[in-house]
Amino acid sequence: MRRRGEHGLTAGYAVDALEPAEVRAAERHLAECEDCRRDLAEFRETAVRLARAETVQPREEVWESILAEARVTRQKPPTRSRPAERTLRSRSVGRWLPWGLAASLALFSMVLAGTLASVSERLAEQEARTSEVETLLAAADTNMVAASLGEARATVFASYDRDAAVLVVEGLSAAPEGMAYRMWWVDGDGVRPAGVMESSGEGRYAGVAGDMGFPDQLWISLEPEGDMAEPSGEELSIDL
Amino acid sequence: MRVPGSGAHTVSDGGRDDEECSGGRHALSALLHEVALGDLSAFESLYRELSGAVFGVARRVLVDTAQAEEVCQEVFLEVWRTSARHDPSLGSVGAWVLTIAHRRAVDRVRSEQAASDRLTAVGRLEPPATPHDTVPEQVEHRLEREKVRRCLRKLTEPQREAVRLTYYTGYTQRQVADLLRVPLTTVKGRLRDGLIKLRDCLGVTV
Ligand SMILES: [Zn+2]
Questions:
Q1: Across the interface, which of B1, B51, B195 has its CB nearest the CB of A43?
Q2: Confidence of residue B161 (pLDDT cuts 50, 70, 90)
Q3: CB–CB of A207/A198 below 8 Å?
Q4: Is B119 exposed, middle or buried (0-12, 13-18, 19+ CB in 10 A)?
Q5: What is the mean pLDDT of chain B?
Q6: Share of chain B above pLDDT 90, in %
Q7: Fold for domain A9-71?
Q8: Which residues contact B139 (CB under 8 A, 6 or more apart)?
Q9: B10 against A74, higher pLDDT
Q10: What is the pLDDT, as a whole number, of residue B75?
Q11: Is the ipTM of this complex over 0.90?
């Protein structure tokens, strides 16, 4: 698409001078271009020299507070690879349909029109974020993946540029009083909360999951209301 | 699911070899390996080695000392948490840590900028005056600074400006283009050429 231009993003990437969408493009390109990876490494080493020339020792209290915090901070285990610059999402590309294509399927269009309007409304009531859903669906890189979860059918619309996804599930049994369907991102770092799903009638649940990163899976589980760090119920899993 | 670590590391206080290296690549990567095993004294050595540059560059970008201290804390805690995930094939430990530092400083500038740009359409156009003249510095750092200054002087004025406005001030290339009223591709070219000249002048190798 913009091959030529993407070689030219490396210098900007090295000194954090890219706009968010350019960052994604640069990372995609770096995953494929060895020349640019070498340039990046050299530019970063150059930046190290610029930084060292700025050397100023911080107050000793800074170290003391870091040490105190480190003593109670769990370290992460090694991971197979660094998603941001290495594998990126080549793994999932084949499974994802371009949203434009998916949108042409009348069934989905009809189902989604109602659901998304309803999600938008709810979000608008809560946080005035209507445009978030619209922006996400309009984003150039938005992709769709469909999966069956036993009786239920899930559809995910995800945009790496927007770092968010919309999840729509049909055919879920109604959440009992005091319980809610919650979403969870699963990636190399483990499991983290991705938000709550809302009922939009007729056995349909939908939610907007932000802070996506480069997930391996999206999970849904039925949980008691209130914030939770990890799923306690049995989870339904969507491979991304 | 995941059991929180129970800091069962032995912390040997003191015994740090202060002259072990001045940023030697292998020394830092050996230290990081020990940090990944939970060794707090290795963590302190790594901190002593890199905190001046981390804090310095954060302060240069942010101007504000308190914010730079916060960034310094965030950076080293991230290093502590993710030390096992550093991939040596993607660059040196120093480059990794300082990349985190610069990115966090720039992120703060941008979120502040986004807030203030909404109030004043103009925003802060002039980069802040550099604050470092007010601080006494050690000889080795003065030498390194002199060398960097000499190399910066070898850039053309537009190249130097592109490096200054991006790396030191935290603007995106696009913002620089808007600010200078030149095409984006021009800014990209200046920044790239500037970094290449600096790389060669400083004798950077990977
Ligand atoms: Zn390239």
A1: B195
A2: very high
A3: yes
A4: exposed
A5: 82
A6: 66
A7: Arc Repressor Mutant, subunit A (1.10.10)
A8: none
A9: A74
A10: 97
A11: no
**Side chain identity, residue B125:** L
A57, A70, A78: residue with CB nearest B80: A70
Does B55 contact A57 at a Cβ distance shorter than 8 Å? yes
The pLDDT tens digits of the residues spanning A163-181 come to: 778 888 888 888 888 888 8
B158 vs A85, which has greater pLDDT?
B158
Q: What is the pLDDT of residues A100-138, one digit of tens each?
A: 555 545 444 555 566 666 665 655 555 544 456 666 666
What residue spans in chain A does CATH classification 1.10.10 cover?
A: 9-71
Predicted local distance difference test score (pLDDT) of residue A114: 63
CB contact under 8 A, B56 and A86: no
Q: Mention every residue, 6+ apart, whose C-beta is less than 8 A from residue A26.
A: A6, A9, A10, A12, A13, A18
Q: Shortest CB distance from B206 goes to which of A45, A62, A79?
A: A45
What's residue A186's pLDDT? Answer: 83
Residue B23 DSSP one-character state: S
Neighbouring residues of B153: CB distance < 8 A, sequence distance ≥ 6: B160
Contact A169, A153 (CB under 8 A): yes
Whether the CB-CB separation of B144 and A49 falls below 8 Å is answered with: yes
**% pLDDT > 70, chain A:** 68
Residue of chain B with shortest Cα separation from A18? B172
CA distances, B25 to each of A55, A189, B45 (Å)? 18, 27, 14
Kindly list the structural domains of chain B, giving each domain's residue range(s) and its CATH number in brackets, ordered by start: 1-153 (1.10.1740.10), 155-206 (1.10.10.10)
Give chain A's end-to-end CA distance (angstroms, integer): 24
Q: Is the pTM above the cut of 0.90?
A: no
- Tell if the CB–CB gap between A51 and B198 is shorter than 8 Å: no
CA of A102 to the centre of ligand 1 (A): 31
CA separation for the pair A230, A232 (Å, rounded): 6
The greatest distance separating any two alpha carbons of chain B, rounded to the nearest whole angstrom, comes to: 57
- Who's near B35: CB < 8 A, 6+ residues apart? B42, B43, B46, B79, B80, B83
The HSE-up count of residue B75 (CA atoms within 13 Å, CB side) is 35
Amino acid at A107: L
One-letter amino acid identity for A191? Answer: V
A74:B76 CB<8 A: no
Separation in Å, CA of B119 to nearest CA in chain A: 20
Residue A100's pLDDT is 52
- Say yes or no to pLDDT of A81 above 60: no
